[in-house]
Amino acid sequence: MKKNIILIGFMGTGKSSLGRHLARRLGYKFVDTDSAIEEITGKTVEQIFRKDGEIRFRSEEKLLVRKLSRRAGLVVATGGGTVLDRENVEILRQNGVLICLTAAPEVIFQRVKNKKRRPLLSRGDLWENIVRLLHERAGAYEVAEFTVDTGELGFDEVLHQIINYLQ
Ligand code: S3P
């Protein structure tokens, strides 16, 4: 059985765009958990946070993690908060390889500044939110087996490193 490849990491580290390419290269199916939650609920991530609250979003995320872990041959781009929940980590690990994408806060800032899909960054000062959350989450992404910095290396080199690691 082909283990799933689970991309974890902070917002703006490139999980979705890299994941899509990685899946194509490996002949795996690609799932972006945020998009899947939007499809399942019929609401945007932003609407769920605003109308139903973060707790509701996290429970949708958790249900989805359980569903996906019963499948194989997937590349999964998780949301930046998915692995803050230890149970999600345990479930994802059962049949998945966890790979963490990182980037410096300056890089993250540039990447997320024009995107509106991230309610945790959109209230107040963007830079302060990034620095605070990175600080709060320091350690949470260390559950990965392999980590690669997507700010330092070019897109193709990052893909190459991940594929090399998986072989
Ligand atoms: C979140 C990250 C987002 C999305 C939600 C919460 C987080 O996903 O799941 O806004 O807690 O870091 P991306 O990492 O794909 O932006």
Automatic annotation (TrEMBL):
Positions annotated to bind substrate: 34, 58, 80, 137
Please give an example of a GO cellular component term from this record: cytosol
Tell me the enzyme class. transferase
Q: Hey, which pathway is this one from?
A: Metabolic intermediate biosynthesis; chorismate biosynthesis; chorismate from D-erythrose 4-phosphate and phosphoenolpyruvate: step 5/7
Quote the PROSITE patterns the UniProt record gives.
Answer: SHIKIMATE_KINASE
Provide the cofactor note recorded for this chain's UniProt entry.
Answer: Binds 1 Mg(2+) ion per subunit.
Q: Which GO terms describe its biological process?
A: amino acid biosynthetic process; aromatic amino acid family biosynthetic process; chorismate biosynthetic process
Write one Gene Ontology MF term.
magnesium ion binding
Q: Which Pfam families match?
A: SKI (PF01202)
Transmembrane feature ranges: none
NCBIfam families in alphabetical order: PRK13947.1 (NF010553)
| Species the sequence originates in | Desulfallas thermosapovorans DSM 6562
Indicate where this protein resides in the cell.
Answer: Cytoplasm
Q: Which gene encodes it?
A: aroK
Reaction catalysed?
shikimate + ATP = 3-phosphoshikimate + ADP + H(+)
Task: Outline what the protein does.
Answer: Catalyzes the specific phosphorylation of the 3-hydroxyl group of shikimic acid using ATP as a cosubstrate.
Q: What is this protein called?
A: Shikimate kinase
User: What EC number(s) has UniProt assigned to this enzyme?
Assistant: 2.7.1.71
Describe the subunit structure. Monomer.
